């Protein structure tokens, strides 16, 4: 089969297909931070970047960068003295992932660079392939972009994965020096702004019958590990009056969390539940569950957490167990930058026949899904371009996009960069 022309939607889709090869499992797509698959994906994407005329480098946190100068020549990422517009997204995935969450944004960014070859710009252009947006391995999300925006917290080093490997040990095993993670931080004065193209991961654009939209604000999630401790006892010999069943208590908590979230108009997800000792004839003595909380505002999210914590205290008392929590991630809700967003809107309006230049018709969406743009907002203005995805499905192998929408996104993304270059 002939390779699609670089800088086309077909080429972008082909890259997303190719990246599915770098996975920890042969039955699903899973590529987590500091894994062999992460290294392999960085190698593959770096080759695509160089082919697009970028010089490439991996930074001190495992993020992949490609850069061209304002004049259009390959230039070492992070070069100072010539501020850069960064086009980025992430290369890591959740377990059983779809192939477009993150990867579409990186492939689109490289395609834009292909489109702009030979075009001088008033700023350098960098493409970022962030290394850990999902937080799937260590619990803390946005690790790659937090390092790139100078927000790394030494408290994260001891967070461990399901096998007990700490972030610090995984860093070293990957060939990175924990002591140098600060070197990944980009300076505000070296950045013009940050743009990210991403699938919507929701149903709004499909409901509107539109291929593209821009992002107004991005929800900041708070994530916790809740540990329920009861008492492991014999399944036959222990009467109910003597039981302190950690799993039954956790089950009450899970359904109560959903009731509280629905009442509050927030979003709560218990994504993982580990029970021990885990035998059919032993009453569970311990249940550990993860909790992801989001809402339209940080205040609403925090109020929801307060009610969840109170419910946990009530259930602990009623069921004679203890319920402790540890917060593993917290990100502030982010409002996208006016100038970056105006460029995204202008790009969409100019590039999509649905809008025929009418910027006012371009839909602005709240993003309940988190993105690397949230971290990059700490050092530069951010703008996001959303691409319709079928039925809003994401974090699932059935994630899918229309080639025509990807073509519209590529045109719009390129036009947005040129709008910032005032071309
Ligand atoms: O969880 C999220 O919202 C994003 O996909 N990391
Ligand atoms: Mn995701
Ligand atoms: Mn994503
Ligand atoms: Mn026995």
Q: Report the top-level CATH class of the largest domain.
A: Alpha Beta
CATH topology of the largest domain: Aminopeptidase
**Biggest β-sheet: count, sense, barrel?**
9 strands, mixed
Just name the CATH architecture of the largest domain: 3-Layer(aba) Sandwich
Q: What number of structural domains do the residues give?
A: 2
Helix content: 25-40%
Overall radius of gyration: 23 Å
Number of helices: 11
The distinct ligands, each listed once, are:
(2S)-amino(hydroxy)ethanoic acid, manganese (II) ion
User: Which structural class should the secondary elements be placed in?
Assistant: alpha+beta
Order of helices and strands: HHEEEHEHHEHEEEHEEEEHEEHEHEH
Q: Give the overall pLDDT as a whole number.
A: 97
Poorly predicted ranges: none
Cofactor: Mn(2+); Zn(2+)
Keywords: Hydrolase, Manganese, Metal-binding, Zinc
Binding site for Zn(2+) 1: 90, 101, 198
Organism: Promicromonospora thailandica
Describe this structure in words.
This protein has 423 residues and is of the alpha+beta class. The chain folds into two domains: 9-219 and 333-420, Aminopeptidase, CATH 3.40.630.10; 222-330, Alpha-Beta Plaits (2-Layer Sandwich). Helices cover 32% and strands 21% of the residues. The chain has eleven helices and 16 strands. The strands form three sheets. Strands 1, 2, 3, 4, 5, 6, 14, 15 and 16 form a nine-stranded mixed beta sheet that branches. The model has no long low-confidence stretch (mean pLDDT 97).
């Amino acid at each position: 089969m002939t390779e699609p022309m670089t800088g086309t939607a077909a080429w972008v889709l082909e890259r997303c297909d190719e990246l599915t090869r770098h996975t920890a499992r042969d039955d699903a797509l899973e590529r987590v931070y500091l894994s062999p698959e992460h290294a392999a994906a960085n190698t593959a994407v770096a080759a695509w970047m160089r082919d697009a005329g970028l010089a490439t480098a991996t930074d001190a946190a495992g993020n992949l960068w490609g850069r061209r100068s304002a004049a259009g020549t390959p230039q070492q990422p992070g070069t100072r003295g010539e501020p850069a517009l960064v086009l980025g997204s992430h290369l890591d995935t959740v377990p059983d992932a779809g192939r477009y969450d993150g990867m579409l944004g990186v492939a689109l960014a490289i395609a834009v660079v292909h489109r702009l070859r030979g075009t001088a710009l008033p700023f350098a252009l960098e493409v970022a392939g962030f290394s850990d947006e999902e937080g799937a391995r260590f619990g803390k999300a946005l690790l790659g972009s937090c390092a790139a925006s100078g927000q790394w917290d030494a408290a994260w080093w001891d967070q461990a994965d399901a096998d007990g490997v700490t972030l610090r040990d995984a860093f070293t095993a990957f060939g990175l020096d924990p002591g140098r993670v600060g070197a990944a931080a980009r300076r505000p004065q070296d950045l013009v702004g940050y743009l990210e193209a991403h699938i919507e991961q929701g149903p709004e654009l499909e409901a509107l019958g539109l291929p593209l939209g821009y992002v107004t604000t991005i929800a900041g999630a708070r994530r916790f590990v809740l540990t329920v401790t009861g008492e492991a006892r014999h399944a036959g010999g222990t009467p109910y009056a003597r039981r302190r069943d950690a799993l039954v208590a956790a089950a009450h908590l899970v359904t109560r969390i959903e009731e509280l979230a629905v009442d509050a108009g927030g979003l709560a997800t218990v994504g993982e539940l580990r029970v021990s000792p885990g035998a059919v004839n032993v009453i569970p003595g311990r249940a550990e569950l993860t909790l992801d909380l989001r809402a339209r505002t940080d205040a609403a999210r925090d109020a929801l957490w307060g009610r969840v914590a109170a419910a946990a205290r009530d259930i602990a008392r009623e069921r004679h167990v203890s319920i402790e929590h540890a917060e593993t991630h917290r990100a502030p809700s982010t409002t996208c930058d006016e100038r970056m967003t105006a460029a995204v809107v202008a790009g969409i309006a100019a590039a999509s026949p649905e809008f025929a230049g009418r910027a006012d018709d371009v839909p602005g969406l709240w993003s309940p899904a988190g993105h690397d743009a949230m971290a990059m907002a700490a050092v530069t203005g951010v703008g996001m371009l959303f691409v319709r995805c079928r039925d809003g499905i994401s974090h699932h192998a059935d994630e899918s996009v229309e080639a025509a929408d990807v073509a519209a996104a590529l045109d719009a993304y390129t036009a947005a960069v040129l709008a910032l270059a005032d071309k």
